[in-house]
Write a structure and sequence with these properties.
The protein is of the alpha/beta class. It has a single domain, classed as Alpha-Beta Barrel (TIM Barrel). Helices cover 40% and strands 16% of the residues. It has 10 helices and 10 strands. The chain has an 8-stranded parallel sheet. A two-stranded antiparallel sheet has the order 1-2. The radius of gyration is 17 Å and the shape is globular. The N terminus is likely disordered.
């Protein structure tokens, strides 16, 4: 199955419109994770200060990240909500600082329309929404922003999503959800060249669900949109390998390569340097040479 998919993994002609800046996806890209939160599952509390966040973003860009994804509210299982004002206060100063210095796309990881608007005004070129613009007014905010949008699938919400998630057919159900959300976005005036899809590994899924999604990721090409995947350091890796969060690099790289082989366009990760090397190697094989 995978060998037959490899040719389609060369993302020729895919260009993502990020609020007027173009991101060429002819070669897969790496999105570096920058959580400016006290409680994210892997790096919570490490980058709350703007100077620390900038230093980490500089490292990720030097290591090859094409996108830096800034999040101000944890979406780990069981995470508590924060106020809109607090989320804006966390992400906007960081985004302004990053946009003033770094030559890459800055993404905001949020589901709230006020945060989306503030982040894009500060220079963000992409909105990464785990709720796929389902919150009130989020669709209009994203449409008006001009930014690229990543639509992710999640069953439930971060506080409850891992409480016995159920599907008839996880791949078919997630695909149907994303197909519907894409249609809603297009109807709202968001051009297809601004859209990315994410099946939402770990968001309301058991280990078996996650493994099925990764095994059959090629089916998401039906939507003819770039695919973003985020499996870095997640519990699905810990469950298979019996590894703690800080020791899941090898499993994360394996998952990234399996996704790349099936045509993923963006890999979201904490471990940028190692993932960039894996992307380059995998792409060299898929493309038949440099």
């Amino acid at each position: 199955m995978l060998a037959g998919t490899a040719g389609s993994a060369v993302n020729s002609g895919k260009v993502l419109d990020c609020a007027g800046r173009k991101l060429d996806l002819a070669m897969p890209r790496v999105m570096g994770i920058l959580n400016v939160t006290p409680d994210s599952f892997s790096d919570g509390g490490n980058f709350l200060a703007v100077d620390n966040a900038l230093a980490h973003a500089r490292r990720m860009v030097a290591d090859g990240a094409s996108i830096v994804d800034v999040g101000g509210e944890s979406t780990r299982p069981g995470a508590a909500s924060v106020s809109i004002a607090e989320e804006i206060g966390r992400v906007v100063p960081v985004i302004e600082t990053l946009c003033a210095e770094l030559p890459v796309i800055i993404s905001v990881d949020t589901s709230r329309p006020d945060v989306m608007a503030a982040a894009v005004a500060a220079g963000a070129g992409m909105i990464n929404d785990v709720r796929a613009l389902q919150n009130d007014d989020a669709l209009a905010a994203a449409a008006d922003s001009g930014a690229a949008v990543c639509l992710m699938h999640m069953q439930g919400d971060p506080r409850t999503m891992q409480n016995d998630p159920q599907y008839g057919d996880v791949v078919g159900d997630v695909l149907a959800f994303l197909k519907h959300r894409v249609a809603v976005c297009v109807d709202a005036g968001i051009a297809r060249d601004r859209l990315v899809i994410d099946p939402g590994f770990g968001f309301g899924k058991t280990l078996a669900h996650n493994l099925q999604l990764l095994k059959r990721l090629e089916l998401f090409h039906e939507l003819q949109l770039p695919i973003l995947v985020g499996m870095s350091r997640k519990s699905m890796i810990g469950s298979v390998l019996d590894k703690e969060v800080g020791d899941r690099l090898v499993g994360g790289i394996a998952c990234a390569v399996l996704a790349l082989w099936q045509g993923a366009s963006v890999i979201r990760t904490h471990d940028v340097r190692e993932t960039v090397e894996a992307v380059r190697m995998c792409h060299a094989v898929v493309a038949g040479g440099f």
